[in-house]
Design a protein that fits this description.
The complex is a heterodimer of chains A (738) and B (283).
Chain A lengths: L4 H5 L1 H12 L3 H18 L3 H14 L4 H14 L8 H15 L4 H12 L4 H17 L5 H11 L4 H5 L13 H16 L5 E3 L10 E3 L2 E4 L8 H21 L11 H22 L2 H7 L12 H13 L8 H13 L9 H17 L31 H9 L26 H4 L10 E9 L4 E12 L7 H9 L1 H16 L2 E7 L4 E2 L1 H12 L9 E6 L4 E8 L14 H18 L3 E9 L5 E7 L7 H8 L9 H13 L5 E8 L11 H17 L2 E7 L5 H8 L4 E3 L6 H13 L1
Helix pairs in contact in A: 2-3, 2-4, 3-5, 4-6, 5-7, 6-7, 6-8, 8-9, 11-12, 12-13, 13-15, 13-17, 15-16, 16-17, 20-24, 21-23, 21-28, 25-26, 26-27
Chain B lengths: L37 H10 L4 E4 L6 H12 L3 E5 L6 H5 E6 L2 E6 L1 H8 L2 E5 L6 H4 L11 E4 L4 E4 L5 E6 L12 H4 L3 E4 L5 H12 L3 H15 L12 H12 L4 H13 L3 H14 L1
Parallel strand pairs in B: 1-8, 1-9, 2-5, 5-8
Antiparallel strand pairs in B: 3-4, 6-7
Helix pairs in contact in B: 7-8, 7-9, 8-9, 8-11, 9-10, 10-11
Amino acid sequence: MSSDPRRLRHPLATLGDALAAAGLPESVGIELARAREVLDATLGGATADTVTESLVNLRLQGADETLLGAIVQRLAQLAPRLSGPGGLAAWLTAVQEVAVHARPCSLALLASYEEVVRHGSPAELLMWARLGLRLGQVVPHTDEAGHDARLAHFELRSRESTRVLSPGMNGTEGSDLAASKARLAHLLRALFDISPALLPIEHGLASRRPFLSNLGLHLPEAGRALGGTAARRWYDAAAAHAAAHLRHSTHRFERGGLKPIQMALVGVLEDARVEGIAAAEMPGLRALWSTFHVAEPAHGTSFYVLMLRLAHGLLDPAYADPHPWVVKGRRLVAEATDNGWITLLPALLRDIASRLGNDIGQMRLQFNHRDYVVEPAYRDDNSHLWQHSDDTPPVLQMVADELPVPPRNDTDREHDVQADDGEAAPRGQAELAGERSPEAPLARLQYREWDRLVGDYRSAWCTVLEGRPAHADPTALQAALEEHAELLQRLDKVLRAGRLRERVKLRAQWRGDELDVDAAVRAAIERRSRRPPGEKVHQRFDHREREVAALVLIDSSISTVDLVASGGSVLDLARVAALLTTLTLERAGDVFAIDAFCSNGRHEVRYERALDFGDAVGASALARLAGLRSRLSTRMGAALRHATTRLEAQPRRRKLLLFITDGEPHDIDIHDRRYLVEDARRAVMEAGRRGIAVFCVTLDPAADNYVRHIFGAGQYRVLDCIDSLPRVLPPMVLRLLH
Amino acid sequence: MTVASVPSRPVGGARTPEDPLAAYRIGREPYYRAVGGEVSLFDVAHELRLPLMLKGPTGCGKSRFVEHMAWRLGKPLITLACNEDITASDLVGRWLLDAEGTRWQDGPLTLAARHGAICYLDEVVEARADTTVVIHPLTDARRMLPIEKLNEVLHAHPDFHLVISYNPGYQTVMKDLKTSTRQRFAAIEFGFPEAAIEAEIVAHEARLPAADAARLVALGERTRRLKGHGLDEGASTRMLVHAGALMSRGIGPVTACWMAIVQPMTDDADMVQALETAVLASF
């Protein structure tokens, strides 16, 4: 095209000519005409030419009407952000290259670009786009995986994609969710006194904004904001905003007759309202959020931009904006909130939104609600503000099904890296080995049982079948462990304090801090009676190795299938409690085992060794632990005797049997309620005589009577939720020390 | 009552031999803002010479309260900060060697019991449980202290009153009071005062405008929500006073909180960052 000066003065006329000449569809021409105002205002008069040129090129290379229309629309929205030097050129180049080489990714690129453009120079953005294209070349073009990788890149879903834009950063320090989780949890608790679960936005869900669900707060996995401090601020802002909703957005709006424009405005006003309430209490939050509000009069007057300008104006009282609609919006809100944001009731808010929406309609501004994403990006998608009809929840159920998420290898999972000990069974084995085909026992042992009516033991009365549980998927268990990482630290601390305190007084030493008075008196007597005095007259304190062997015995009878208040079954709770306890002991240098039992009459007391003495808590141990199932009955005595035998074989100075149960002993062939209780009591006494401390953790809140009878006062604790474990562990440690 | 010896103290200026407790008397009124009925409760308990236990988190004003009460009642106050190396002789007293031979030195507990003072054992759980047992005969109806090394039975002065304090949050496996010790005491529980009162305290102690003090207290409450979730304890009133004092000397609130609250409270990087944002949000 030549540089006819007329074109600069009448861009639309020339555009029309050019479009017609290139055979461009009329709809694209209309879009261009609409965009003209913004393009002119922000990018200068020559923009339209450049754009047209690119569109014609694209058309020639086969781009269809939808894509061209989308490009023009997007450009109008992005124009304020592209106004810097080289901004437009980089954008056009990127769009062209992607449209030509990876057409299916074009729309993703268009959608993501505004995020990207926020964080890098035009050259970096172009590099980002080209890297995405390369992904498709490394993997053959036709390959589904290659396409997926590329799409993930352009949708900003892959970590690499977000890292490219932050040169010199390896992308891990505080810029992804995993690294931010702990900080955000602390922050939300401190600022808002809430602790929602912080969840990554799953890749399968194409959500472009954080969102709130019944499960918790979903945040993007890799930072949408890039770079250390900026990324931290972004996550802080996003989490604080969502938390403000959780605290203050109690009303669910009904869609009713609202148009999409009005719904978007309800979102803007509600966002402003919750931020206003939070900032009244914590003024510094306003500054935190304000950094993300950059819209200003120069950015144009499309509905998007006006909404952003209104949002900016509602958050920041110092922001000046002359646009009559923005002024009106701020005035209406100011009138409704002269006693603080808290006085803005939902009905009034809805009313203001619909009035402002009507104005937009009268100004004939366009709004494509399918394309709409909440701005600025730290704000969540506001879907939680609306009442949903009954058929909507499936999305969240899908998330629930996908949970728990497999642990990432970059967290402190040092226990997982243990090599499998060679007996790993295929995963499906738990299902294959059904109820009716019990695993072959490794050993068959007979134990006596106490008969309370006879007042004596019945010898060789119970048969214990010792085996190992089948492997099962340990994902849930690992997730639970991750969830309780903090608890584990606390347990560790309690135990370490106990460990350091194990002092022993060494008497009659050559040297020491104090005189051993008895030895000194003896020496004095010896000297006066003219015998050579002993020289070991000192005493000192020393630390002694703990030398503890502990066995956790879990009751896995059928009653443990019941659900507990904190979620999960009783057996789940027992499993996690056992695991946390042993991990704590492991850190203290003790040896430990985790076993479980259930029974089916006296001939079949099943005893399963999930974790043996000396085993590391590795992947296979977790899989076996996960393989424990709730079934059959509870014959405690025989199981206790077998556990005692196993503990006795450990060459340790102190031995502890930790028994986790959910109810009283019971078996199908016993109808006398007291029979098994008395037998279990005997078994505990036998263990005590053999130098083994037995401690019971019961999950049955009404267990006091029989548990006290079996284990003795002070030898048991009732555990109602996993978080009480720190209360349970210290007395147990005391048992070990005395 | 037998006065075996007048304990001498290694340092000390002009002290009349008539009043061995002069150094322990409190001249000026220590500032204390009553929160509930604790002042009258202490009054009555003191009248009855009922041994008292003050429970509460660190920095919530337990020690200040005892000082204030000692001043109010016009009684000398002997304070001993307990630690795990404290032995029974540190409490009761010991024989010392000097040029003329051996000389008996009363310990703080004996001193208070002999001459009639309020004896305040701060953070008593830090002392070993078997050490604490020496206070038993003083804290029941006998009100006496057998000092076997002196071969003396010391009957407590009518003014003697024993007060202990501890932080229930700190006990670990070994650090707890024996039941037999606990049951000799009546207890007053201390918590952080409610926001308005705490702001008043901070404003007074740090000489800070009320609005700034209120902000500080709000921040303090935010950190206290983290107790048990990454912090062992939230920011105490004492910490807030320190931050406030820095602010009143012209240091910016964020810097002051950073120095007096965030950094002292934790070393955990995530927690430091979270607190940093909380501080920024609060001002």
